[in-house]
């Protein structure tokens, strides 16, 4: 015990550097909070608009050991500071933001030089952060906020190291229309895609942090370790704390809606903060929810600058027809609070990795409707482990209302879905029972890496 206390009394300085998306910032922030509790000094680097969100998230409970550092992006006329984040970013500006972020190397190098941290923890889209850290003789660790099944699949597909063209786990695959979309994305963003798929892994110092759980993805973690030659260290699900002080009026309305419903009777519907449904997709999902005859909370999001109202965005008369059992929200919603509520029985999800982790943690089965990027392979993992079912699409990827209604009812209501519901409940219990055991081991790995680096630095001739 005394030795452990002595180890934790040594404070190390860690520079956290996530990509500019909420789905990446949130797990980086959760990891940062845990590190501060173990006497690490954290410097959290992002753009001004994201730092505003982070300040709000931290609230009055902010630790003195967590300091915010602004990253300056180059001035680009079509990319004002309000667009220095992927949240509500118009889709056509995503590549512009990516290029601007890649051009921020000088700003980040200055931050590293000034702070002289003991460790840099960087995200998937900026392997150059590792290169810059190495110039200053600072170790760096890649923290992947995506799952091991998806990352091992992409690594295999894009890395020149693969021995075979066939991914060894047939459960994880892309359909033809998904592969076409993915290949097009890779070709237009070749350098960034390679960063995401394997370069960020290869440059990581000794270990790679994965937002995952051994109990969920063990074989994929092992295969990814084999591919990149690094030890995979899991952090567990890193679930954001769900506070029950509902001070936000929107939160209060949502929770009151759930409180009035019977146990396991409400479906939660959300497609993340960065995917904006097309008119056709919104209509098919709306009609599918209507056909299911189930109660629901649906979060509908629009890109920044879009002036369309909820009434205009949805089929004529839809809100009136479902007003007794449906709630449509066009603002941020407290996802963790909704998923842990006893009235919630299923999650119609785009299958972003953070959303999947939350759903698994709270034992909620998933109606999978992946849209792009890593989401299709994440959805296949849910089907493989038996905690979700995918809404099948037409040959060209079109959503069909009858299929939406069919899968929702099967997963949350019908006898055929009992096994899925049961597996989701059991996995949730296991993850909650395990607590932060994996995270504690990950923090110890980071402490060991920092200690090792400091010892090597002290032995160098001055």
TrEMBL record:
Any GO MF annotation of the entry: UDP-glycosyltransferase activity
Name of the top EC class for this enzyme: transferase
InterPro entries reported for this sequence: Glyco_transf_N, UDP_glucos_trans, UDP_glycos_trans_CS
CDD domains, per database record: GT1_Gtf-like (cd03784)
Coiled coil: 432-459
Pfam families xref list: Glyco_transf_N, UDPGT
UniProt domain Glycosyltransferase N-terminal: residue ranges: 13-239
Keyword GTP-binding: no
Keyword Glycosyltransferase set for record: yes
An individual GO BP term: glycoside biosynthetic process
Annotated EC: 2.4.1.-
UniProt KW keywords: Coiled coil, Glycosyltransferase, Transferase
PANTHER family from the UniProt entry: GLYCOSYLTRANSFERASE
Family membership: Belongs to the UDP-glycosyltransferase family.
The protein's name: Glycosyltransferase
